[in-house]
Write a structure and sequence with these properties.
InterPro entries: ATP_synth_OSCP/delta_N_sf, ATPase_OSCP/d_CS, ATPase_OSCP/dsu. Helix content is 60%, strand content 14%. By secondary structure, the chain is α+β, with helices and mostly antiparallel strands. Helix 1 crosses helix 6, helix 2 crosses helix 6 and helix 4 runs antiparallel to helix 5.
Length: 185
Amino acid sequence: MKGTRAALRYAKATLNLAKDRGVADNVYNDMLLIDQTIDENKELKNLIVSPIVKSGLKSKVLTEIFGKKTDPLTQDVMRLLIENNRIDILELVAKQYAIIYDFIKGVEVAQVTTAVPLTKDLEAKILKKVKTITGKEISVENKIDPSMLGGFILRVGDKQYDSSVKGILNNLLDKFEDNFYVQKF
């Protein structure tokens, strides 16, 4: 993906500066907010990556959206990205910062893919179970995939647990293919 290396460098530098200033937690929350906001708003994403829109307008819009809610260091990072004509990687910087921060804190992200959004109760149960399995601090990220018939797919690190209806049916189909007594169509 274009800009990933630069985003990683900006994220590392931001985290080091945030730790020096004692605001790493605040900046982490800001980066989550930035990532979520850009991810949920196509118009904002298009504005940020558009080479036609002037830097001044981008700065004004970002200040309006995030100015009062974010730490001064986060605002400085956004200004620096605008000055260096790299504001198009803002979302990547936010994602990379969160990944590095979680790694340093020992927090792992469990990605749960379901057909419908998780309830708070179910999310708490998943958190508890995954925490006992991995022995690590876990945060849950819920992805919605309406094409799933039911069940869930849990991905923690490089491990995946597929308990979806689609996955179970595929496993069943694989077992039937090895059976000589079942006629092949």
